[in-house]
Each structure stands twice: as structure tokens, then as C-alpha cells.
Amino acid sequence: MRKLLFGVSAATLALLYGLLVLILLIVFDLTGVPLGTALIASAVVLFIQFLISPFLTDLTQRWFYKTRFGAEIPAYLQEFIEQVCQEQHMKYPKIGLIEDGAPNAFTYGHTKNNARIVLTRGIFDLLTEDEVKAVTAHELGHAVHYDMLLMTMAELVPMVLYAISRALINGTKSTVGSSNDSDDSKAAAAQAALAAIAYVLYIISQYIVLWFSRTREYFADQFSVEATGDPEALSRALIQIGFGMSTHEEIAEGGKKGRQRAINASSTNTLGIFDSKASKSLTVSCFVNGEIDKTHIKNAMKWELWNTWAKWYELNSTHPLISKRLQAIDKLAPQYGRMPFIDFDLQKPESYFDDFLREIGISLLPVITFLGALVVGAVFWVGDDTEKLWIAAALLVLSAVFSLLKFRFTHPNKEYYEANTAGLLGEPKVSGIRSIPCELRGTVIGRGDPGCIFNEDYVLQDETGIIFLDYSQPLFILNKIFAIFKSKQNIDRFAVVKGWYRRSPVPYVELYRMEVDGRTVKCFTYGFGLTIRWIWLALTAAALAAALILL
């Protein structure tokens, strides 16, 4: 594994820095800036950023997440970490604990010898000892593989390319504004072309970095399996955190068993187990009478393996899809004398690509018609053909109509169906655009971003699992006021939730209203969005009427 990991890392970094050096050579030849000076300046900035980043993250964790570094962890986990550290010739990492019921784990630092590993109470709430070890081993894998250093090096390339693109664009504006001869015009054109090339390379490098990150997640999973010798433990942990599975007994008791484990433990750009966005996703119960019900797991995997949106979201994610990670882990199982944990043998009943295209069309039509109205209006205005401006006004009306129809499609509200997380997660026909109106009942167990005092979102646990709740008001500042002053009072309370279930790729419910202890928490984004669209339709219709009257 080490040789393969080294080869992948070396080839990826060589490609990224090859692109960077190529554009730098052209830029510095064009501008006359000494190449060595620019490279030294970039290296110094990167070094300083890399040097202080873990310490700034430490402060952020303490201040805004209430992370307790040095908190005692269970003896079994401490012994396991010590064993891995001894085998890998690394120092014992700095362990942080966030007192939040939403499960998450991540690592950061400079190298394997000053790594920090942060775990939430939710990890101990949901997982068995073997599963906690598997998750921790995954984070140790990132440290052992020097992922913190390598990802910093990789992420530098798109940052520099973007800075070059912006600098060239600003330089082009300056040159155009002061150009007095053809030489200046040619230089401006060359800079504009180079700025476009740098921006295209920036986009390409971003996707290379994302692919690089996803690849290292697979290797961290493999390290976890090697360290524990138990591929099934990691699979179960991924399912419980990513699809969020807990035993019926634990959920029926409101997670009290898990919470007791966390209490006992207390008494005796980061690299996480999931994408920072996807870690907010959670869950479906997979236990029936104490035994794993793999039918539930397969249902949860359908969306990721069948829906076209899943492939698009993964392309833009730092982490592979959970289902693909499970399949990769299963390929390792025979080496440890184990059978594959999940044999996904369900047959796709239909193609979902037509739904994907339809949803893209619904999403883009308002934008396309609006841009068309601007172009048509500009052409007629410049051409002094103002009597045809009614065509642009008509396109604006059409754009408003499409926007209203899109909003109605994304927020169907005829009926909120009583549902649970298990049933919702098994729905393959859902996306960030297509939603399912639903009503859920359960306990609010934590914040969407575990422990963060500025996070207004929640995690809800019902009888079948846990799921992320997206709280959103029309104004950003209202979200933060709610997070700081009102959010905490709803945690560890029973709630009835109404909203729209979506995946993008996170399974979540966009909140419409939530009733907690006789209080009603309502999000006004739906009403605000609908009102704005009706006003826009009325204004564009009035503009069209005026244009027709003036003919």
C-alpha cells in the first residue's frame, strides 16, 4: 500500500506543480518579474500559513466549538492509539472532545508527530468499542500518511493559479485604461488570454485536488482496516455515521446508552471521516432484534449508486460516496478471512438520467430566459429599435413564470407526509431540486456542525435514526442570532418537524416549522421566496404592459 500511495501522491503533485510552473514561466516572461523572487515569496507565504494553521485551528476549536483538549478517553481507545503510534513510530496525538450528540471525527496538524484528533460525543453515543477504534484508526491513517502536509501542498496550486488569474485581469484593466498605442493593446490582449488560461487551469487543478483528497480517503480506510484487522467494524461505523445507524434499543431510550458511554469516557481544512458537509448527513436504523438488517443498508445505498446527481456531487466533494467506500472495504475482507459486509445486489429498476436532465432544465430555465431578456433588450436599445423592447419584457415575464414554477417544484406543499429517516433515506428519486414534503417526530440531539456555537442547524433522532435539519431564514444575520441566543434551548428536546427532504449529497430536511415544548420555530424562507417571485412576476407583467402600450 505504501508504494502505491507514494506513487499516486508523487504523480498528482507533479501534475499540479507542472501546471503551476508552466503558467508561472509564461506570466513572468510576459511581465518581466523575476521567477525566483515570485517563487520564494509564494513559498514563504505557504510556509507561514502551514506553520500557524494548526494553532489557529486549536483556538477556533476551543472558542467556538468548546473542544476540550486533554479530556480523558476510554482506556480501550487510549491503549489502541498507543499501540498504533508505537507501530508507526509516531507521537501520541493530541485528543479533543466536543460535547455534542452529532457524530463526527477529524484530524489536523503539521505531521504525524503533532497531529490533533477531535471526536464528538456522538461517536461514543452511536458506536461500539471496535467501531470507535476503526474511526480513530482512519484519522490516524491521515496522520501516518502525512495527508495534512500533502493536501496543503496540493491546495496551494489552485490558490496561486486563481491569484494569478485575478492579477492578470486587474492588469488588463489597467493597461486598457491607459493604452496609447498598438503595443499596449497587444499586451492587454495577451494578458487577457493568459488570465483566461490561468482560470481554466485553476478549475482543472481544483478537481485534481478533490480527486486527490478522495483517493487519500480510500487509503485512510485501508489503513484503518490494517490497524484493526476488522473491515466489518469500519463498514459498520461508516454506515452508522454516514447513513447513521443505531440499535432500536438505543434510539428508543433516546440514546441513553451511548450517552452513558460518553459520560464514562469523560470521567476516566481538516481531514475528517466525512466531507465537512456530508458529515451533517446521518441516518437509518439497521438493527432488527439486535441483528443488522442489510435490507435497510441497501435501500440507503440506492440513491448513491443509482441517482445521477450522486456522481455529480461526488465529483465536487473531498470524500468518496459512502457506498463506494463500503464496496472498497469489502474488497479487503477476504484478506482478513471475512465475507463482504454488504453485497449490493439490487437491480436498478429504471434510468434516472432523464430525471437528472429534467431537474437541470427546471433549474436553468429561469436563468436562461432572464439572460436572454438582457441580451435582447441590450441589442434593441443599442440599435435604437426600442419599439421591439416588448420582446425583452416578454422574456422577463417568462423568466418570472419559470422561477415561480421552479420554486413550486422544489417546495411542494400540498401535504406533509408522516415519515421516518429510514423511509426517506431509501428514496432514490430526490435531489437538491426535487424534494419530498415530510413530517418527522424525534429528539433534537445536537447542532448540524457539532459543537459550533454559530451553527443554527440541528440533528434530529427519531425511532429509526438521525437526520440533519437545515434551519434557514431570508437574512443570514437572523440565522446567526438564532444560533447564538436561541438554538441551544431546543437541544435534547422532543420536536415535531415539517419541511422538505433533499439530498445534495447530504440527506437533510429543509425546515419549514418545528414545534418544541409548545414553542414554534418557523423558517420564513419559503414564504419570503414565494412572495418575492410573485412580486417579480407582477413587476415584469407591468413592464410588458407598458412596453405594449408604448408601441
Number of helices: 18
Note the main sheet. Answer: 5 strands, mixed
Helix content: 55-70%
- Tell me which oligomeric state these chains represent: single chain
Number of domains: 2
Gap from first CA to last CA: 74 Å
Low-pLDDT runs? 245-270, 276-290
Mean of the pLDDT scores? 83
Structure report:
By secondary structure, this protein is α+β, with helices and mostly antiparallel strands. It has two domains: 2-336, no CATH class; 353-427 and 429-442 and 496-551, no CATH class. It has 18 helices and 14 strands. It has helices at residues 2-31, 35-64, 75-88, 121-126, 129-144, 147-178, 182-228, 231-243, 248-252, 256-267, 294-306, 308-315, 322-332, 353-382, 389-410, 421-425, 476-485, 525-549, and strands at residues 68-69, 94-98, 105-108, 116-120, 271-272, 287-288, 291-292, 417-418, 436-447, 458-462, 465-470, 493-503, 507-516, 519-522. Strands 1-2-4-3-5 form a five-stranded mixed sheet, with helices on both faces. Strands 9-10-11-13-12 form a five-stranded mixed barrel. A two-stranded antiparallel sheet has the order 6-7. Helix 7 (182-228) packs across helix 8. The termini are far apart.
